[in-house]
Specification:
The protein is α+β, with helices and mostly antiparallel strands. It has helices at 14-28, 71-77, 83-96, 116-133, 194-204, 220-224, 232-243, 263-269, 289-298, 302-306, 324-332; strands spanning 36-37, 46-47, 58-66, 101-111, 136-144, 154-165, 180-185, 212-213, 218-219, 253-258, 276-281, 313-319, 338-346, 352-356.
């Protein structure tokens, strides 16, 4: 007589999931804040909102995102402890652009087969990035999807909540003609454009992840898996340094933009009013070699690559020129290279964000 159906026979291993939770507890415990109530394992993460009573008018901000096809690189290399930085960076750095402090985050991991050690490594990276961002990891979900994903495949997503004082909100309404654009260097490709990148290197050029590439100073795989730089804590500190105790329009840091999918110009345009225009000077920076490799190997036209990849800039601030040098020095002390790359002007014949010149070599 055949045995009856079971969850395990259908491909779901509950015991493996429990083991993964045990392995990740050590890392989640490090990604906490004083406001977190309880520990891992409940049905919901709890966060004491008493601290919000100290705000005059607290605005809650929320963001959600994933990593995209960069997870395929981590899976091929069997290296899973850095992809969490990509996830956290994509989520919390969307919050900080309005001035919000990210308070807590949750994650979601789905996989074809739960391998406890792999799940624990993914969560380790998420937790370490949360520590770097100053946010708490209050919970998450791991789901096994046999038949939908292969045994060694997974995807990750996350969501975070933050808070900002209403009168300290930054954004397009504060931007003025005469402001300058302060660029903050990316650590590489970050987490956007990997469908194009993978198509160029693997489908067109036939390269492997193990290929040694002198221009990159190592293998292709090592460069493609470089973690996203997490700007949240540094940007919050910069906002506090420049805007604290300044009233209304006297606050010198006016807006920020997280450079993700869509590229530099499109993301910066989201915080520029319609009656203003921005001129960006490409000669103020040199994109890392990986960007040239993608363009050259794939014969990717400049407009196409610039609307797909960050081209070396992961975050920008829009501020008064008088504070630019101070901001650059402040970020340099936190190992974030920054420079002035453009300026804001009244709209004339041109509108939006325009890039001029050639990249420095």
């Amino acid at each position: 007589m055949s045995q009856g159906a079971s969850y395990a026979a259908a491909g779901v291993d509950i015991e493996a999931g429990d083991r993964a939770v045990e392995l990740m507890k050590e890392w989640v415990a490090k990604a906490t804040r004083p406001e977190v109530v309880g520990g891992l394992g409940g049905f919901a993460g709890l966060f004491d909102a008493t601290a919000l009573t100290g705000y005059r008018r607290p605005l809650l901000a929320t963001s959600t995102d994933g990593v995209g096809t960069k997870v395929a690189i981590a899976q091929k290399l069997d290296k899973h402890d850095t992809i969490g930085f990509d996830l956290v960076g994509m989520v919390v750095d969307d919050l900080v652009v309005c001035g919000a402090e990210p308070l807590f985050m949750t994650d979601y991991i789905c996989t074809g087969k739960v391998v406890p050690e792999t799940i624990a490594q993914i969560v380790k990276g998420i937790a370490e990035a949360c520590v770097e961002a100053g946010t708490a990891l209050v919970g998450g979900e791991t789901a096994e999807h046999p038949g939908l994903l292969e045994a060694d495949e997974y995807d990750v997503a996350g969501a975070a909540t933050g808070v900002v004082e209403a009168d300290e909100l930054i954004g397009a309404e504060r931007v003025r003609a005469g402001d300058v654009i302060l660029a903050m260097a990316s650590s590489g490709l970050h987490s956007n454009g990997y469908s194009l990148v993978r198509h160029v290197f693997f489908d067109r050029a036939g390269w492997t992840l193990e290929r040694e590439v002198p221009e990159l100073g190592g293998t292709l795989g090592e460069t493609l898996l470089t973690p996203t730089r997490v700007y949240a804590k540094h940007c919050l500190e910069l906002i506090q340094e420049l805007n604290l105790e300044r009233d209304g329009d006297e606050k010198p840091l006016h807006a920020m933009s997280h450079i993700t999918g869509g590229g530099f110009a499109a993301n910066l345009a989201r915080v520029i009013p319609d009656d203003l225009t921005v001129r960006i000077d490409r000669s103020t920076w040199t994109p890392a070699p990986i960007f040239d490799l993608v363009a050259d190997l794939g014969e990717v036209a400049r407009p196409e690559i610039e609307k797909t990849l960050n081209m070396g800039i992961g975050m920008v601030a829009v501020l008064t020129p008088a504070e630019a040098d101070r901001a650059i020095a402040f970020l340099a002390d936190r190992d974030v290279p920054a420079w002035v790359c453009g300026e804001v002007s009244p709209s004339g014949e041109s509108t939006g964000v325009a890039l001029h010149g050639n990249y420095a070599r």
